[in-house]
Design brief:
This protein is α+β, with helices and mostly antiparallel strands. The chain has four domains: 73 residues, Arc Repressor Mutant, subunit A (Orthogonal Bundle); 38 residues, no CATH class; 86 residues, SH3 type barrels, CATH 2.30.30; 82 residues, Alpha-Beta Plaits, CATH 3.30.70.240. The protein has ten helices and twelve strands. The protein has a five-stranded antiparallel beta sheet with strand order 7-6-5-4-8. A hairpin with a 2-residue loop joins strand 10 and strand 11. Helix 1 runs parallel beside helix 6. The longest helix is centred in the last third of the chain and has 18 residues. The N and C termini lie far apart (57 Å).
Length: 323
């Protein structure tokens, strides 16, 4: 059975291949996904929704006085793209991997984008695996999809949220944007109860409810200067505000050249001839210690003491395990 996304992609490819306008009855007969035994009124509603979805995705679909449709290819497609076999294979692999990843919430958009490139790029022949989320991928993917719709339509969302300390409470958010970092999806926006920007891990969200009243009327205005990149923190910076401490790290001479890229321009970085010193807020000692191990050598953790201890204990365990 053809699902909705596949049916819409089929319609896009059919219109792209048609050399002349096509009537709805022809679409019903020749495009896979429209059941032959479906009531006419139901087909007409479905077909109209599918065309609107394509228009929102950037397909310029026109109609004439006889009710026939065609694709304005000049307005829909960019200039012709020539791909080598290797490039096409890489695109198919990346596309099929993400489209089948339950944590990737934009599978429908991806398939339509591939359809705009070329029909032969939609082939599922290349086997590849994507894993955006390390925890409960399906749960995070579903929430990301719903919250992305809330971001687009600027509708408020309410949900139960469990903090890193284990406390659960109700939150209301004006969602501004989403991002994925280190195997987790996050949503950021204005917490209406606190009247300030906050970032929430989707893995800790339950019972999400997006406001459906006045669906075409936004609930809020997103700040003109909002940039989701400003909310993408380092792994050890997520957690409770109450647990924030000042971390100090030292980049030795052989690691100093990587300091700017590794720090993501967060915190304060002071460079010298023999290295660089970095001061940055931290909320998770274990992840701070892990950051040093993952990005070393020649990176030293100087503070806080509990993170230094976590690092020392972890290294001792590695030594014991591997002799």
């Amino acid at each position: 059975m053809v699902d909705a996304v596949e049916r819409i992609v089929n319609l896009a490819l059919y219109l792209a291949a048609s050399s002349e306008p096509v009537r709805r009855e022809v679409i019903r007969a020749e495009v896979a996904g429209y059941p032959a035994d479906q009531a006419l009124a139901a087909f007409l509603r479905t077909c109209e929704r599918d065309k609107e979805d394509l228009r929102e995705a950037g397909f310029a679909i026109e109609t004439d006085e006889k009710g026939a449709y065609w694709l304005d290819k000049a307005s829909t497609f960019t200039t012709e793209i020539e791909l080598s076999e290797q490039e096409a294979a890489a695109l198919r692999a990346a596309g099929s991997a993400l489209a089948d990843d339950p944590a990737f919430p934009f599978a429908a958009d991806l398939r339509l984008a591939l359809a705009k490139l070329a029909s032969d790029l939609c082939s599922p022949e290349v086997a590849a695996i994507s894993q955006l989320a390390d925890e409960d991928a399906k749960h995070q993917g579903e929430l990301a999809s719903r919250l992305n719709a809330a971001v687009t339509t600027r509708k408020r969302a309410r949900f139960a949220y469990t903090t890193a300390a284990g406390a659960t409470g109700e939150r209301e958010l004006e969602p501004y944007g989403l991002f994925v970092r280190d195997g987790r999806w996050y949503v950021t926006g204005r917490d209406t109860d606190r009247g300030a920007p906050r970032t929430f891990a989707l893995e800790r969200i339950r019972d999400l409810k997006v406001n459906t009243r006045a669906a075409k009327t936004p609930d809020f205005d997103r700040p003109a200067d909002f940039d989701v990149a400003g909310f993408i923190l380092l792994p050890f910076q997520y957690g409770s505000d109450a647990g924030t401490v000042e971390a100090r790290l030292r980049f030795g001479p052989s690691a100093a050249w990587r300091a700017e890229a590794l720090t993501l321009r967060r915190g304060t970085l002071e460079t010298s001839d023999d290295g660089a010193d970095w001061t940055i807020p931290s909320r998770d000692s274990k992840k701070l210690a892990a950051f040093v191990i993952e990005n070393g050598p020649d990176i030293s953790l100087l503070a806080p003491d509990d993170a230094v201890s976590e690092l020392s204990i972890g290294l001792e365990r590695v030594i014991r395990a591997h002799g």
